[in-house]
């Protein structure tokens, strides 16, 4: 009986820990970027985790992402070309998205 209780408790802890580690895409990022980008899979553009890996360790990663999103382009991904500011994101939304993406690399 003790083994069963221990197993149930351990399973519950793992489930809770796994849920806590899941990263949710902020609503504004999802609204403006989610049609072409997902957290961990390529849709039309690269996933946010792929973008984060590309810029990991770059101290100006957020600035580079902002500059790329504002001007639009393919950025070396060979997946097509993103229009400037994606789906019409404001400067504040672009900044929020870039900070979110760079935060995934930590």
Automatic annotation (TrEMBL):
<keyword id="KW-0732">Signal</keyword>
<keyword id="KW-0349">Heme</keyword>
<dbReference type="GO" id="GO:0005506">
    <property type="term" value="F:iron ion binding"/>
</dbReference>
<dbReference type="InterPro" id="IPR002324">
    <property type="entry name" value="Cyt_c_ID"/>
</dbReference>
<dbReference type="InterPro" id="IPR009056">
    <property type="entry name" value="Cyt_c-like_dom"/>
</dbReference>
<dbReference type="InterPro" id="IPR036909">
    <property type="entry name" value="Cyt_c-like_dom_sf"/>
</dbReference>
<feature type="binding site" description="covalent">
    <location>
        <position position="33"/>
    </location>
    <ligand>
        <name>heme c</name>
    </ligand>
</feature>
<feature type="binding site" description="covalent">
    <location>
        <position position="82"/>
    </location>
    <ligand>
        <name>heme c</name>
    </ligand>
</feature>
<keyword id="KW-0408">Iron</keyword>
<protein>
    <recommendedName>
        <fullName>Cytochrome c-551</fullName>
    </recommendedName>
</protein>
<dbReference type="Pfam" id="PF13442">
    <property type="entry name" value="Cytochrome_CBB3"/>
</dbReference>
<dbReference type="GO" id="GO:0009055">
    <property type="term" value="F:electron transfer activity"/>
</dbReference>
<keyword id="KW-0249">Electron transport</keyword>
<feature type="domain" description="Cytochrome c">
    <location>
        <begin position="13"/>
        <end position="105"/>
    </location>
</feature>
<feature type="binding site" description="covalent">
    <location>
        <position position="37"/>
    </location>
    <ligand>
        <name>heme c</name>
    </ligand>
</feature>
<dbReference type="GO" id="GO:0020037">
    <property type="term" value="F:heme binding"/>
</dbReference>
<feature type="signal peptide">
    <location>
        <begin position="1"/>
        <end position="22"/>
    </location>
</feature>
<keyword id="KW-0479">Metal-binding</keyword>
<keyword id="KW-0813">Transport</keyword>
